[in-house]
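Handout for the seminar on molecular recognition.
Each group receives one record of this type.
Step one: identify the two inputs.
Step two: read the structure output and locate the region that could contact NAP.
Step three: write two sentences on what you found, then compare them with the reference statements printed after the record.
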Amino acid sequence: MQIAGSAALVTGANRGLGLAYARELVSRGAAKVYGAARHPDQVTEPGVIPVALDITDAQRVAEVAKQCADVSLLVNNAGVMKASNFIGAPNTDAARAEMETNYFGTLSMCRAFAPVLAANGGGALVNMLSVGSFYTNPFTASYGASKAAAWSLTNGVRLELHHQGTLVVAVHAGFIDTDMAAMVSEPKISPESVAQQAFDAVEAGQVEVLADERTRTIKASLSRDQELVYPPVQEFWDSIVQGTH
Ligand SMILES: NC(=O)c1ccc[n+]([C@@H]2O[C@H](COP(=O)([O-])OP(=O)(O)OC[C@H]3O[C@@H](n4cnc5c(N)ncnc54)[C@H](OP(=O)(O)O)[C@@H]3O)[C@@H](O)[C@H]2O)c1
């Protein structure tokens, strides 16, 4: 689809990658860019219309879908990462919060906006996923589970919306230079690069973006993940547990 002239909505548009998505949409000539955020006063980017939205609030999601009935491009960017593992975490609160936002919140948005996209000619839906959709990193284990669920959701939504001509794009990335990865010292790609790759895919009709080298390597290794992906992860995690790192 053509972004120029379209109406788009980005969730979590107040900071980080969501802000980069909103800014890129404006620069590509989108006619209207709704910047959805829990605190809409934080959406100050020129050309972006603030909209109050917590994606875990199903009633508000429905209201926003009514209010923004001209949207033909939905970018499900909002997400949380609690740096929590499965067994070592004190309870399941982090795992539930991540699933509630990254999976159920994204699911709510897809369901509410599917008819809006249909009414506007099909359009496109972008789901912001992760390299963590493909394998479990113990440092962010429950986050990975929520992104794996969201990957499955994305593939299913693509199948279900094909008949209405909606392009469903999965964007996977490793570390991106935003608040979410602030504690990470490994190489990160810029949010601008992710936004550009995602919208290039939308304009080219491509269904998947693997935004960096690590993400491409992991995806290519999936059929042999127990040989290629997990042994170094296990070794590193064991060294942390044993205090030898
Ligand atoms: N940074 C990375 O390394 C990385 C890598 C791969 C994928 N991602 C994904 O990229 C997306 C954007 O993350 P980021 O890196 O920009 O992280 P970030 O800087 O932590 O920003 C997260 C954004 O999501 C919003 N958000 C969280 N929960 C929400 C909710 N219930 N309703 C509405 N908005 C909500 C936040 O709003 P508030 O300001 O109100 O908290 C914020 O705008 C996420 O889906 C993340 O999982 C990030």
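Reference statements: Residues 93-119 form the longest helix (27 residues). The chain has a mean pLDDT of 98.
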